[in-house]
Amino acid sequence: MPRMKKTQATAPRADAPDTELAALVARGDTGAFELLMRRHNRTLYRTARAILRDDAEAEDALQEGYLQAYQAIGGFRGDAKLSTWLARIVANQALMRLRKRARRAEIVPLQPGATLEHLNEIPESGMDSTPERSAQRSEMRRLLEASIDALPDDYRAVFVLRAVEEMPVEEAAAVLKIPPATVRSRLFRARGLLRETLAARLDLACEEAFGFAGERCDRIVANVMERIR
């Protein structure tokens, strides 16, 4: 595939719509691509992590997805939202890694007692910054994240996209390549499973689950930009 010629155009507006940024990226504007990454980093990271249940692998899948998107964005025709198009690419990268992991597991069993890495804590602010309140919310997030990780694969991906990321049904269906009715039924079942351990506190913690801290965002953007350059 021919490499895009990089341009040194005037920096794009921070509030430029996705379609405008995509057109600039297709002409080689790396600054526009950096804006797109920062705009969609959290959603795409959550998409990858919902599939892989591993922070480091999710970051790797996200970076590879961005590189693939950068090379292919000239073919984006706007038939779907750019966020959906990007999420499909990242989800495919995550699924490929999941299949490779499954093949490796058939040969090399996982060590007993292996655990998932802890997710980054989210700084508290305002009235929630008291030590007692911060501790309560941190514990609630840990409980929620562990419970989501324990969901069956099909339910977990749907729950993260719909309940955590608040992605519309049709968009989640497009990303996961399943019917909208399946998205609805899996979300219903996932909520039921989670409520067995979380009960009424589920919705309170959803918006803060799987935080995408500034350091991780900056690291992914820097790695991708270095490989593009």
Question: How many alpha or pi helices?
Answer: 10
| CA-atom Rg in angstroms | 19 Å
Span of the ends, CA to CA: 16 Å
The second-level CATH architecture of the largest domain is: Orthogonal Bundle
What series of H and E elements makes up the topology?
A: HHHHHHHHHH
Shape: globular
* Number of individual domains: 2
Describe the structure.
- The protein is mainly α and about 230 residues long.
- The protein has two domains: about 20-105 and about 215-229, Rna Polymerase Sigma Factor, Chain: A, CATH 1.10.1740.10; about 130-205, Orthogonal Bundle (Arc Repressor Mutant, subunit A).
- It is built from ten helices and no strands.
- It has helices at about 20-25, 30-50, 55-70, 80-105, 130-150, 155-165, 170-175, 180-200, 200-205, 215-229.
- Helix 3 (about 55-70) crosses helix 4 (about 80-105).
- It is globular.
Keywords summarizing the entry:
0% strand; Arc Repressor Mutant, subunit A; mainly alpha; Rna Polymerase Sigma Factor, Chain: A; globular; 229 residues; 10 helices
How do you describe this structure in short?
The chain is an all-alpha fold. It has helices at 18-26, 30-52, 55-72, 82-107, 131-149, 153-164, 169-176, 180-198, 202-206, 214-228.
Write the layout of secondary structure elements.
Elements: H1 18-26, H2 30-52, H3 55-72, H4 82-107, H5 131-149, H6 153-164, H7 169-176, H8 180-198, H9 202-206, H10 214-228
Helix pairs in contact: 1-2, 2-3, 2-4, 2-6, 2-10, 3-4, 3-10, 4-7, 6-8, 7-8
